[in-house]
């Protein structure tokens, strides 16, 4: 029997990779969604014989409605229609929508899928308590598909978390690992986007270069696996071959390694194991012999100082942090601020008394989160600075 799957954010890198993974496999794509990439999702829908497509952008929806209709594809405006479209549970849903906009559809889709495969870090960081409650209510299985968190999930399996001494997330170090900080203050986006080991979207590539992406992954791991801050750490691993390590109290160490391709965690999460090497030792030996780990410094990556500020319990801290970073990276990519101004503003604003008072308060629902996003963006616009050195 064909497995039914929904892919939210199908035109992005994770969504596109998922479609390539399931092509010619025993899957039936029930629904695809995009923000506004109508041309790409149209091709995807035709290729996979998809009956339902969601476009979030109203102008693109109106422009392409007839084109989809002529091919008997039902085009829907907005992710608010998710529950109406799906009248039965599907086997899998992959949500790769970027940004905090992915939280609402995450919460909506949980009741409509047996397995939620989530690559939307903002949803996990800002709304994990809301997600977790719904997962339990609808008995939906959860699998993280970011390579680091998938690796931890895969390795822990039935292990007792109390036996874990330390969990380590690895980071490539980004494109500026071997450059002096003073040389990158005014670096152009095209240079910051040149990730050394992964092919990723623009926003996450900038976050990787500043090491902010690893701060986010630290927060994700803390929430998904219910970890105290002292049990988490970060190491630089330039080849991005080992994705996570687990140190146990008894002195043993586990690590999970694979090529830097998102197709690997995605295919494993979907239980697709037909890709194999005829000589696995030979194919991996050169990488295994090049294992190298470096402890990152706050001097090199100033945003790592945020790790010491993370509250043990969930609060508005996470929403404020993500909102500030998202806005600053957007401004940088649109040449409104320089590279230095990303982390200078972020470090100054996240420690401001205006925000600190919220770090002991916890959002109760998605509306609280949205209010804090608006408040944070307003405060940033009034207090942002342009730093030269």
Protein described:
This protein has 389 residues and is α/β, with parallel strands linked by helices. It folds into three domains: 3-144, NAD(P)-binding Rossmann-like Domain (Rossmann fold, 3-Layer(aba) Sandwich), CATH 3.40.50.720; 145-301, no CATH class; 311-389, Orthogonal Bundle (Rna Polymerase Sigma Factor, Chain: A). Helix content is 42%, strand content 16%. The protein is built from 16 helices and eleven strands. It has helices spanning 13-22, 38-47, 58-70, 82-85, 103-109, 121-138, 147-156, 189-192, 202-210, 212-224, 263-269, 280-288, 317-333, 339-350, 353-356, 366-383; strands at 3-8, 27-34, 52-55, 74-77, 90-95, 113-118, 141-144, 164-171, 232-236, 242-248, 253-257. The strands form two sheets. It has a seven-stranded parallel sheet, sandwiched between helices. The chain has a four-stranded mixed sheet with strand order 9-8-10-11, covered by helices on one side. Helix 6 (121-138) packs parallel to helix 10 and helix 9 crosses helix 13 (317-333). It is globular, with a radius of gyration of 21 Å.
Q: Estimate percent helicity.
A: 40-55%
Q: Looking at the structure, what is the overall shape? A: globular
Parts with pLDDT < 50 across at least 5 consecutive residues: none
Percent of residues in beta strands: 15-25%
Whole-Å distance between the termini?
Answer: 61 Å
Work out the radius of gyration: 21 Å
- Kindly name the structural category: alpha/beta
Strand arrangement across the biggest beta sheet:
4-3-2-1-5-6-7
Order of helices and strands: EHEHEHEHEHEHEHEHHHEEEHHHHHH
**Could you give a short account of the major beta sheet?**
7 strands, parallel
**Structural domains: how many:** 3
Number of helices: 16
- Nearest-integer average pLDDT: 93
The total count of strands amounts to: 11
């Amino acid at each position: 029997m064909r497995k039914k799957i929904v892919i939210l954010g199908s035109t992005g890198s994770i969504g596109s990779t998922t479609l390539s993974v399931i092509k010619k496999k025993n899957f039936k794509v029930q629904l695809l969604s995009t923000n506004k990439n109508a041309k790409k999702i149209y091709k995807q829908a035709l290729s996979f014989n998809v009956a339902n497509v969601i476009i979030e952008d109203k102008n693109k929806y109106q422009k392409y409605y007839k084109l989809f209709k002529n091919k008997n594809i039902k085009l829907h405006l907005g992710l608010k229609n998710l529950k109406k479209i799906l009248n039965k549970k599907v086997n899998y849903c992959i949500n790769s929508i970027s940004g905090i906009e992915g939280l609402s559809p995450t919460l909506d889709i949980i009741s409509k899928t047996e397995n939620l495969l989530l690559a939307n870090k903002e949803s996990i960081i800002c709304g994990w308590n809301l997600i977790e409650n719904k997962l339990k209510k609808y008995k939906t299985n959860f699998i993280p598909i970011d390579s680091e968190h998938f690796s931890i999930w895969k390795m822990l399996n039935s292990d007792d978390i109390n036996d874990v001494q330390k969990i380590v997330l690895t980071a490539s170090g980004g494109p500026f690992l071997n450059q002096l900080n003073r040389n990158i203050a005014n670096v152009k986006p095209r240079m910051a986007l040149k990730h050394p080991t992964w092919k990723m979207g623009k926003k996450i590539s900038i976050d990787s270069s500043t090491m902010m992406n690893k701060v986010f992954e630290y927060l994700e791991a803390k929430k998904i696996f219910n970890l105290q801050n002292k049990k988490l750490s970060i190491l630089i691993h330039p080849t991005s071959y080992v994705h996570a390590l687990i140190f146990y109290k008894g002195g043993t160490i586990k690590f999970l390694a694979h090529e830097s391709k998102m197709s690997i965690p995605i295919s494993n999460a979907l239980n697709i194991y037909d890709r194999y090497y005829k000589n696995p030792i030979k194919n991996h030996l050169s990488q295994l012999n090049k294992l190298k780990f470096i402890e990152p410094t706050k001097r090199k990556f100033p945003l790592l100082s945020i790790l010491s500020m993370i509250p043990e319990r969930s609060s508005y801290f996470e929403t404020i942090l993500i909102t500030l970073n998202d806005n600053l990276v957007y401004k940088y990519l649109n040449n409104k601020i320089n590279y230095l101004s990303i982390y200078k503003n972020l470090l100054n604003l996240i420690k401001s008394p205006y925000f600190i008072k919220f770090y002991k308060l916890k959002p109760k629902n998605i509306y609280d989160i949205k209010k804090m996003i608006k408040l944070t963006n307003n405060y940033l616009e009034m207090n942002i600075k342009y730093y030269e050195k």
